[in-house]
Write the structure tokens for this entry.
Amino acid sequence: MIKIVKDKDGLYQFVLKSGNGQVLLKSIPFNSENETDSTIKDIKALKKTNGKFFERRTNTDGKFLVELKNSTGKIVGSSGLYTSEAGMENGILNITNSLE
């Protein structure tokens, strides 16, 4: 499930949630709802690339996270932290499924 939210500064962000409401990924802030919608359409189209729009990372504490890229390679969102690589890969599957 994708939800668009507007913050107190007037910036927009999309949030990807699992079926049970768990936040899987939050986007960077966007200046307009139109820019947010365009980015969502772009990443939905990338869904067919078999995960090539994900960048897997490890932070300094050894936790895993996923960054979501648009078609130009710009990072447009980040996941929460995972304690294992397997958990991160499962998170990628959940994020991909939430893009429907």
Q: What stands out?
A: The two ends are 7 Å apart (CA to CA). Residues 33-46 form the longest helix (14 residues). The helical segments are 33-46, 85-98. The beta strands are 2-6, 12-17, 23-27, 54-58, 64-69, 75-79.
